Each structure stands twice: as C-alpha cells, then as structure tokens.
Request: fold
Amino acid sequence: MTDLREQLLKAGLITEAQATRTEEGGPRTGRHRRNSRGRGHDTRRIERRDPSDVTPEGEADAAKLAEDSRVDIKTQRGGRRWYYVSRDGLVPYVELGNDVAEKLSRGDLALVESPAGEAWFVSREIAVRILGLDPAWIRAFSA
Reply:
C-alpha cells in the first residue's frame, strides 16, 4: 500500500514539487495560524485543578456555591442552541437568546451541571471559584 502523497501524485492532484516540499517540511504546526478571536481579545488564563485532586469538602463547597449563585436566564425559543457535554457523556443543549450566548462565549457566564444532571448558569467570578474547588461542575466556560 502506498502513502497518501504517492496517491495524490499518481492521481495528478499535486505536482512533484509539492510532494517533495511536504516531504522536506514535515508536519505542520498551528504556530503560524491566525488567532480566530481577532486582535485585542482578552486572553485570560485560569489555573485548572486536576479532577482527581478534589476532596469531599471541595465537592460540597462547589455544590453549595453553585446552588447559591444561580443566574436566572429564561430560555428563549428561536434563539441559539448551546450544546455542551454532560457528566454522563451525552450532548444536551440549552436554548438561549443571542445576548446570553454572547456572554457565555465571552466568559462572563459559565454553565454548571450538578451530579443529578440539572444545569444552570453562574457568573464568571463564581465559575473561577468552582474551578478551584471541583472542576467537574463546569460544563461550558470560556476562561
């Protein structure tokens, strides 16, 4: 069996020069890719804990913090669907208005999910605190 480069060359989809150039260049990395967020985007780095380091006290504190800090958002039919991966590996969604979806994209809001599968939103500050206690609660957060 031949490799893809030889097959593309045989089919006439690339030239001999292109085949040798990729052979010499090696694999491409994403270092020269343009930043998809554009210029001036606030790149905030938040230290994430390893989920295996979570203590039972941390889990309880995260649960209390998440419960007490709900941000009430009315679901909006005809808005945007925001998909996320739940704790059990399924991919549910919530329907949001464009303004709420924008806040979620910017990182002003975060989507958290309880072990029972109930999901709601919390503010950025609360999400950062929850990440320090038990990162398994966070389902969507642009940190």
Notes: The mean pLDDT is 78. Residues 1-30 form one domain. The two ends are 45 Å apart (CA to CA). The helical segments are 4-11, 16-25, 56-68, 98-106, 124-133.
